[in-house]
Amino acid sequence: MAGVRGEIPNLTFGDVLKRYAREVSAKKKGARWEAVRLEAVGRDRIAAVKLRQFGPSHVADWRERRLQDVSGASVRREWNLLSHVCTFAVREWSWLKVNPFKGLSRPPDSRPRDRTATEGELERLLALASPALRRVIRFAVETGMRASEIASNPPVKGRVATLYDTKNGTSREVPLSAAALEAWREDFGLTAGSISALFAGLCDEAGIKGLTFHDLKHTAATRLAKKLSPLELAKMIGHRDLKMLLNVYYKADMEEVAKKL
Questions:
Q1: Residue 139 to residue 179: CA distance in whole angstroms
Q2: CA atoms within 13 A on the CB side of 14
Q3: For this structure, is 106 an active site residue?
Q4: Which of 167, 185, 226, 240 is catalytic?
């Protein structure tokens, strides 16, 4: 094989994406997300570029085109994945001599979302939601759990739910309020994908713009911050970085803060 002889094989970047999806992504926790992203890039014109000609100019062209369609944060996530694909192709398969992503300017970070649901929006959503989705929304606002964490149907003992499979790879215990306990049952009956999709459809039905299910985590953090210390909040929400917790997930009401002065 050309790679074994130190030669770049007569293949395309699309061939690299397919092999990476089959041999590497399939073994990861985020296999589904990577598979979807790699398949999408495989339909882009960058996938047709021959590896022997593949260089920074093709990456720059892809970056600028993607920035016209999605946010900088989305392009950065895809950039990280594709750069790792290329690094793997260099080190493991000898299909590339160098990683063409290296040395190029990455898209700038987007401003973090600070959208939270208002009381009025929550009332409208709960009034229109199906019984199952209503329970999920209430549980999310009370606990700050992500859709994937709720869909895992965490076991509850007493007033504590235990998450064994979290985003950062560690388990965590989440204390439950009386309202959270009322919403919880042994099985929510919804997948993470269906929760996000149903919530988006519900927002459209309610005429609510710019709200995602993940924004309920921001909503929960802002509510819980009135009751918990920063360390307690960080532990419950699952953030080790207090700065990130304050900047991204906690949106303080300065009118309420002013009343304390």
A1: 8
A2: 12
A3: no
A4: 167
Q: For residues 245 and 242, what is the distance between their CA atoms, to the nearest angstrom?
A: 5
pTM, rounded to two decimals: 0.61
CATH 3.40.50.300, applies to 119-256: no
Q: Give me the catalytic one of 146, 217, 218, 250.
A: 146
Per-residue model confidence as pLDDT tens digits over 135-180: 999 999 999 999 989 998 889 999 999 988 676 667 889 999 999 9
pLDDT of 3:
46
Which of 63, 66, 249, 250 is catalytic? The answer is: 249
Closest by CA position to 134, among listed 216, 251, 209, 224? 216
Residue 214 is a catalytic residue: no
Is 239 among the residues known to form the active site?
A: yes
Active-site annotation holds for 164 = no
**Residue boundaries of the structural domains of the chain:** 13-93, 119-256
In the sheet where 160-163 sits, what is the strand order?
Answer: 156-157, 160-163, 172-175
* Residue appearing with tokens 């900088």: 72
Distances (CA, A) of 18 to 7, 45, 89, 245, 256: 20, 15, 12, 37, 53
| Nearest 10 degrees: Cα torsion 86, 44, 109, 203 | -130
